[in-house]
Design brief:
mainly beta, Jelly Rolls, 13 strands, globular, binds zinc ion
Length: about 190
C-alpha cells in the first residue's frame, strides 16, 4: 500500500482519455488464458487503435520505470497490460491544453485480476514492479523514435510509492530525467 500521501505535488484523479478495462482471465487445471486486447471500439475502449509494435518489459521487484512518453511529431499511443506479477502503475497528464493537465492516475496491476490501459498521446507512463519477474506488455501505434522520446522524473509520484524512490532500481536515464515543474518537451526530430 502507498505510504500516507502528504505534501502533495500532484493532483490525484482520472485523466481525460485514459481507459482501463478488465481482462478476461480463464483458469483451469492447465494454467490460464487471458486476452489482453481485442480490437475496439467497445464501451470500455472507444478508441481506434492499431498496433505498430508490441514489446514486453520484465522487471525485478523494486524496479521503477518512468515516467515515459513519445511526443510529436511521432507521438505514440499505447495499450499496456499486466502479463505476470504485480505492479503499481502511474499516469501523468502532460498535455497543457487538457482539462486534467498535471493529474496523476494510479492503477494496481495484478496477474490475478489483470487489466489493460489505453494511454493517449501526451500522457506519461511509469510503474513500480512489486514482484520479482513482473512482466508488462506494451502495444504502441507508431515506431519508437529516440528523438521524440520524452520523460519526467519519477519524483512526481514518489509519495505514492510503497518504498522510497531512492531505494527503487532505476536506469541511468530515468535517474536524470527532469522534474515535472521544470519540464518542457522539445523533439530533436528533424521530420
Ligand atoms: Zn521523432
Amino acid at each position: 500500500m502507498p505510504r500516507e500521501f502528504e505534501d502533495t505535488k500532484v493532483i490525484m484523479g482520472a485523466i481525460d482519455g485514459v481507459h482501463v478495462w478488465p481482462v478476461s482471465n480463464h483458469k483451469d487445471l492447465r494454467g490460464r488464458l487471458f486476452k489482453v486486447y481485442t480490437d475496439g471500439p467497445y464501451p470500455s475502449f472507444p478508441e481506434n487503435f492499431e498496433t505498430f509494435e508490441h514489446f514486453f518489459t520484465e522487471s525485478k521487484e523494486g524496479v521503477f520505470r518512468g515516467m515515459h512518453f513519445q511526443g510529436a511529431p511521432h507521438a505514440a499511443t499505447k495499450v499496456i497490460s499486466i502479463v505476470r506479477g504485480e505492479a503499481l502503475d502511474f499516469l501523468l497528464d502532460t498535455r497543457k491544453d487538457s482539462k486534467t493537465f498535471a493529474h496523476v492516475q494510479t492503477q494496481a496491476l495484478n496477474q490475478d485480476s489483470p487489466v489493460s490501459i489505453y494511454i493517449p498521446e501526451g500522457v506519461a507512463h511509469g510503474y513500480i514492479a512489486l514482484r520479482e519477474g513482473t512482466i508488462v506488455s506494451y502495444r504502441q501505434n507508431v515506431a519508437f523514435c529516440e528523438s521524440c522520446d520524452g520523460g519526467i522524473n519519477g519524483s512526481i509520484v514518489e509519495n505514492l510509492l510503497p518504498i522510497p524512490l531512492k531505494e527503487t532500481i532505476r536506469s541511468e536515464r530515468d535517474l536524470h530525467l527532469k522534474e515535472f515543474a521544470s519540464f518542457s518537451y522539445t523533439s530533436k526530430c528533424s521530420q
